[in-house]
C-alpha cells in the first residue's frame, strides 16, 4: 500500500525558510519521480516542483524558481522541499505526490498523493 506522509510545515515569517519532508513507503521509491504541489483554500492544485527518480533532473514552477529546492534521498525513501525567501502568498497546503513514471512529465501523471502539510507565512 502506497503511503506518502508529509511533515515540516508550520509558521514562518516573510523572508524565512522551511524544509518539508515526505516519507514514502509501499513502493520502490527509487524507481519513480516525485513532485510537490500546493493548494490554497477554494483553489485548484498547483504543481510546484518535480524530481526524477535518480535525482538527476529537477523542475520548478515560475512562482518558486530560485527560492525552492527539491531533493531526494533514495536510501531514506524521502523527498524534500527546501523553501527559502518565503512570501505570504506561499501560504498553502503542500502535498507530496508519486509519479507513475521515473521521469516527471506533468501533474496528470501523479498517481498518489499524501494528505498534506500546512505552510503559513505571516509576520
Provide a descriptive summary of the structure in words.
The chain is globular and about 40 Å long. A hairpin with a 6-residue loop joins β5 and β6. The chain is built from no helices and eleven strands. The mean pLDDT is 96. It is an all-beta fold and 123 residues long. The strands form two sheets. Strands 2, 4, 5, 6, 9, 10 and 11 form a seven-stranded mixed β-sheet that branches. Strands 1-3-8-7 form a four-stranded antiparallel β-sheet, with no helix packed on it.
Instruction: Give the biggest beta sheet.
Output: 7 strands, mixed
Could you state the order of secondary-structure elements as H and E?
EEEEEEEEEEE
Gross morphology is globular
Helix content: under 10%
Count of individual beta strands: 11
Strand portion = over 45%
Distance between the termini: 40 Å
Number of helical stretches of at least 4 residues: 0
- Uncertain parts: none
Mean pLDDT: 96
How does the helix and strand content classify structurally? Answer: mainly beta
What is the rounded Rg? 13 Å
Describe this protein with a few key phrases.
123 residues; mainly beta; four-stranded antiparallel sheet; 49% strand
Outline:
This protein is an all-beta fold. It has strands at residues 3-7, 10-12, 18-25, 34-39, 46-51, 58-60, 68-73, 78-83, 92-99, 110-113, 117-121. It starts with a strand and ends with a strand.
Secondary-structure blueprint:
Elements: E1 3-7, E2 10-12, E3 18-25, E4 34-39, E5 46-51, E6 58-60, E7 68-73, E8 78-83, E9 92-99, E10 110-113, E11 117-121
Parallel strand pairs: 2-11
Antiparallel strand pairs: 1-3, 3-8, 4-5, 4-9, 5-6, 7-8, 9-10, 9-11
